[in-house]
Design brief:
heterodimer, A: 190 residues, B: 310 residues, alpha+beta, disordered C terminus
């Protein structure tokens, strides 16, 4: 097999660092505002990671998203909606194969030393979210944000940095696919 | 039940279950700890050693413009080590904190001497020291990865002036099998060495427990006949036997480290070098018959003194 060094699949270390978010950060704020934000958003962000990534490392994905926010809190705190930013980071981490593997690798090392059970869902819910995860990446993200956060189309569009029309298209296709794949679902609502 | 009803019910139950299982206090403490560890391990945690080294490098030559009070122990007047890449020769994109102490743009010292590496790659925090013999060069190895390719995190290559002999110290490049086990000992050094020792295309020894640079290690010797037709892409070139597949079944030809036909390799997989990622030391050449290579190998020290000795 002839492998081209210029293959875009082979990135430089800097890109890998960025992709894995391992770059040494700028100093973070440690003030109470981040902590309040964290306490308010942590559980739901974990839920988002849980449904989009599944498995015992999903908490680490959520945690990773908050770590990014923590390091950049000066900037993130200035945003109109910091929670939206963290949701975007979390959704991207949870659905990016490379980034997830990096997080999972570290999580597995940690888990081997300190077992932490995965959040148990009902069999019905596991089936539902398994099916969501089987959807194309953007569709899965849109579905998770739509149902888990009960966000409007415009808010999902802002979160994922796409147009309202794209969100509607992804949501429509996702619903159609879910209705087809989930026998228990009576059909997609409009 | 309609799909929407099912989805909303599932979302509600999932949110409740996750919220019930979440320990926000513990998670927040862990977040702060992880943040401090990442920054501290790579930057502050090595400050005594690093600052001593960089201040030795910088203060010894820096103009008086640096008047700020040092935040680390004063360096010894003796230049114990030279700074290894990436803190020489180019502007690092990580470890920018060091730029206030060291002129990161200065020419990389490639002459003989005792070197210290503080950030070999981006996932582990050795630090370690090595001795570069006359004529040899040291350069940083960039990582590779992206998309479906597993990330290799980088390392250092110490290269002889001729003969294709070299020694690579690298963070263990992830590979799919290591991530797909449920054993809880993912990527354990002995497992990595054991896999090397069963490589189907190579002549290899069994994995032997030994020590290197003051650390526990597992050693495997690997060779491949010159005439072997290989198709791998490794850090040393495009003709090698893949040893650490980066891309699993989808990209079987990519490997961060590999065996070059006709050049024996000795692999050491080290335990406990920090960061949760094993370190791989890999020779291109036989240390048993190459005194220079043997001396480089013997000069590795993964337990350097915190304060450089004069």
């Amino acid at each position: 097999m002839d492998v081209d060094r210029r293959d875009p699949g082979l990135r430089t270390a800097d890109t890998v660092a960025e992709a894995l978010d391992l770059a040494v950060p700028t100093p973070a704020h440690t003030g109470p505002s981040f902590e309040e934000f964290y306490r308010r958003e942590y559980a739901r962000t974990c839920a988002l990671a849980r449904v989009l990534a599944g498995g015992p490392s999903s908490d680490d994905i959520a945690q990773e998203a908050f770590l990014v926010a923590y390091r950049r809190w000066r900037e993130v705190a200035q945003l109109t909606d910091p929670a939206m930013w963290v949701r975007r980071v979390c959704a991207n981490l949870a659905t990016s194969q490379l980034r997830r593997r990096g997080i999972e690798a570290r999580a597995l090392v940690r888990l081997s030393a300190r077992p932490r059970p995965a959040v148990a869902l009902t069999a019905e819910d596991e089936v539902f979210w398994d099916t969501v995860r089987a959807l194309p990446r953007r569709q899965a993200q849109v579905v998770a944000l739509f149902y888990l956060y009960d966000l409007a189309v415009a808010d999902i569009a802002s979160t994922l940095e796409m147009s309202d029309g794209s969100v509607k298209t992804h949501l429509s296709r996702a619903r159609a696919a879910l209705a087809r794949l989930l026998p228990a679902a009576g059909g997609a609502d409009s | 039940m309609s799909l929407d009803e099912m989805a909303r019910a599932s979302a509600r139950r999932t949110t409740q279950a996750v919220a019930a299982a979440s320990d926000t206090d513990r998670a927040f403490r862990e977040l702060v700890t992880v943040h401090r560890r990442r920054v501290g391990a790579k930057v502050v945690g090595t400050s005594a050693l690093v600052l001593a080294v960089v201040l030795v490098v910088v203060v010894g030559t820096a103009p008086s413009r640096r008047q700020t009070e040092p935040i680390a122990p004063q360096p010894t007047p003796t230049k114990a080590y030279l700074a290894a890449p990436p803190f020489c020769g180019r502007q690092p994109t990580f470890g920018d904190e060091f730029s206030q102490y060291v002129d990161v743009g200065h020419a990389c010292p490639t002459g003989p001497g005792r070197y210290l590496s503080v950030l070999m790659g981006i996932g582990s925090d050795p630090p370690f020291t090595f001795t570069l013999p006359p004529g040899w060069t040291v350069r940083g190895l960039e990582g590779a990865g992206g998309g479906p390719i597993m990330p290799a995190l980088g390392g250092l290559m110490l290269k002889a002036p001729s003969g294709g002999r070299a020694l690579v110290v690298a963070e263990y490049p992830s590979e799919r099998p290591a991530l797909s086990t449920d054993t809880g000992i993912v990527g354990a050094p002995q497992n990595i060495a054991a896999r090397l020792a069963t490589h189907q295309y190579l002549t290899r020894t069994t994995a032997v427990r030994t020590s290197l640079g003051g650390r526990e290690a597992w050693r495997v010797d690997l060779t491949m006949p010159e005439e072997t037709n290989t198709d791998g892409f490794c850090v040393t070139g495009d003709r090698c036997a893949v040893t650490f597949a980066l891309g699993g079944d989808d990209f079987p030809g990519r490997s961060y480290l590999g065996v070059v036909p006709g050049t024996p390799s000795r692999a050491f997989v080290l335990n406990g070098t920090g960061g949760g990622i094993p370190t791989v030391v890999w020779t291109y050449g036989d240390p048993d018959t190459d005194p220079a290579l043997a001396s480089v190998l013997a000069g590795l020290d993964f337990n350097p003194p915190v304060v450089p000795k004069g």
